[in-house]
Predict the structure.
Amino acid sequence: MAGQSAAVLHSEAKIRIRPLNGFIGAEIEGVDLRHPLTPAAFKIVHDAFVNYEVIVLRDQDITVDQQMAFGARFGELSIHPFSPNLPDKPEVIILDYSADNPPALTDIWHVDETFRETPPLATILRAKTVPETGGDTLFASMSAAYRGLSERMKQHIHGLEAQHDFKPWRPLFGESDRPKLRQLEDRFPNPWHPVVRVHPVSGRRVLYVNRQFCTRIKGLKADESEALLEFLYRQATIPEYQLRVKWQPNTLVMWDNRSVQHYASHDYYPARRTMERVTVKGDRPVGPAGAYTPDTVPANGTVKPAIAEGTRPIVEGEAKRPPDKAINLGNLELRFDINRACWAGQTLDLTLTEFKIVSVMAMRAGEDVSYREIYDLVHGKDFVAGYGSEGFRANVRTFIKRIRKKFRDVDPEFEHIHNYAGFGYRWLTDA
Ligand SMILES: O=C(O)CCC(=O)C(=O)O
Ligand SMILES: [Fe+2]
C-alpha cells in the first residue's frame, strides 16, 4: 500500500498513478471516463483512491451520466437532502457560484454529510467553469492526522464518540418552516460517530471529527469537549497532511469521504465557478474494537518521529540539574539562561548560581555565533539597544569567563567542552 515514492505504471491498463504529496493525493493518467473502466482498470483506480485518499483525473470531458456511471462503480449513488439538485437526476448537484450566488458553507474544513447515520463513501466533483484565479479545493488526510498524534493522545481519544448535526443548514429554516425542520430532525437524528474511525477497506485509523457538523463528545464536560474538539479539528489544518487542488475545466476529483476532510477556498468570488457533483453512499462509521492497542496498519506516507528524549527544551525545574548531565560532547552547543533582571540592567553582576542551562542544542563543533545569537541565548529573543556595543561585548566576555569557571569547578573536561560551546568561541581564545 505504501507506494508513495515513484510513479507507478500499470502497463496492463496504461494507467499511471502519480502521487502528489507525502501523505495524500495522486493524479491518475491514462483513464478516459467517457468509456466504462474494465474490471482491471477499475481495481487500479479504486485502490489508488483508497490508498491516496484523493484522486485527480484531468481532461475528463464527460456528461453527468458518465460521471454518475463512474460513481456507481463504487456503490449506490446518494441524494443530498438539502442541496439543490437536477430535477431529473437528483443524484447530481450543480454548484454554480458567482456574484449573484456567492459560494456558501464549504469554506470550512468538513467531511460531507456526517449528520447522516451513514455518510457518503466518496464525493466526485468535476469542474466546468473555473475562475481565472483562486477557487482551489484543499484536502487533508485524516489518517495521516491520526498517525501524527502522540500515543497518549491516541489512547485518550480511543473509544470516544462525537455527536453530529446538520447545524449549518439550521438557519435556513425560519419560524414558518418549523414543521419541515422537525421532519428533518426526525430523518437525521444526530448520530454518534466514533472520534477515531477505522477505514472499512484500508483498515487505517482516521480522525473523524469535523468542525462543520460535530457538536460534542460523549462523556466529557462541555469545556473539555470543546477544547478537545478544537484541538482535533486543528489537525486538518496542518500543511503536511494536505493536498491543494488547482482546477482546470474538466478536472475530476474524487475524495474518500471516510478518510479526508476538505475545504473550498472562496477566494474567487465574485467570479463564476461551476462544478458537477455526485456522491456515493457509504456505511456506518465504526471505531477500533476493544481496548487500545497501537495501530499497525501500513499507510501512505510516514509521520516523522517526535523529537528524541534529551533534545527537548528543558522545562523550569529541570533546569538545575548538574551540567555534566546536560553536556554531551558530540557536537553540542550549550545554551544558558541568566538572571534576566540583572542582564536587563546590563551589569551582568552574576553569581555563579544565577545562570542555568536551559537547553542543549545540536550545532556544528566550533561554530562561531554572532552577538545577536549570544544575546538571544542569554536574554531571550528580543533585541534591545546596547546589543553589539563595546559594553555588551565586555559583558559577554565576563559572562563567558564565569561560565568557564563554573564548568571547570564542576567538570574537569570543561576545557574540552568550551570548544564546542559555540558560545563566543573566538572570544574565549582571544579574551
Ligand atoms: O466546491 C468545492 O470545491 C467543494 C465543495 C464541497 O465541499 C463539496 O462539494 O462537498
Ligand atoms: Fe463538501
About this structure: The chain has two domains: 8-280, 323-430. Residues 57 and 183 are 39 Å apart (CA to CA).
